Amino acid sequence: MGEPATEDQNTNLPGAGGAGLDDDRDEPEALQGPSVAPEHIGEPLVVLTEVDKYFGELHVLQHINLSVRKGEVVVVLGPSGSGKSTLCRAINRLETIQSGTIEIDGTRLPEEGKALANLRADVGMVFQSFNLFAHKTILENVTLGPTKVRKKSAAEAKKRGMELLKRVGVDSQAEKYPAQLSGGQQQRVAIARALAMDPKVILFDEPTSALDPEMVNEVLDVMVGLARQGMTMIVVTHEMGFARKAANRVVFMADGQIVEENDPESFFTAPQSNRAKDFLSKILTH
């Protein structure tokens, strides 16, 4: 379930190339090329240290240590209930943690208040349920954050918003409302909205799980384009094609713990843990 959208959660950076794929294509065109190259990966940007999270008696995040570097694409995989989405939401402080620390670009994530809102503006979030404002046009959805949070002029925000909508392939829908768009189009708008805040990192929480199968590829194509342009991304997903082709690193979680980390080729061809082997044997049977 996605969190209701708020004006300070949405985040601007170079957008992605072509969307609008043929429905009968097996996988996005961008996925058919080589993996994202690691040469532009920089210093650690998101750092989690000994992070613990409980829901009542349930220990959903257990001593999580994870570092994501600038320009890196990290895909988080694992069975349902493993803590993947909770991990993603904790990085944006949509879920509070009981112990440990989370740092974004060297700054510890505040617990509340204006400091949290300011830092959260640097952390884009794309939810599985789009969370667009139903009463605002597509363009208004994209320009709201930059004008309210980044204090950009309306003209500047509109110009940038149209550029981003064009990059994700929905500029012709700018004056429509979310209900008039398909699910795939709405999710591409959500990505443009996230980019409109110039985020340092974008979190994707199951961004294709609410889409009809024929709409999944158009969203993945946009995400691969972002990855190839050097956007730092943490992606919780079940899309194995994206994980294998676009990720620099795969993080496998089970029972609230990080069980295994590796490059995609190594993870998919020679998983080290029995949990990962079992997971892959079930999910890669088709």
TrEMBL record:
Membrane topology: Peripheral membrane protein
Record CDD domains: ABC_HisP_GlnQ (cd03262)
Segments passing through the bilayer: none
Keywords: Amino-acid transport, ATP-binding, Cell membrane, Membrane, Nucleotide-binding, Transport
SUPFAM superfamilies in the cross-refs: P-loop containing nucleoside triphosphate hydrolases
MF-aspect GO terms: ATP binding
Primary localization class, coarse: membrane
All residue ranges annotated as the ABC transporter domain in the record: 46-280
Cellular localisation: Cell membrane
Region (Disordered): 1-38
Family classification: Belongs to the ABC transporter superfamily.
The protein's name: Amino acid ABC transporter ATP-binding protein
Record organism: Microlunatus ginsengisoli
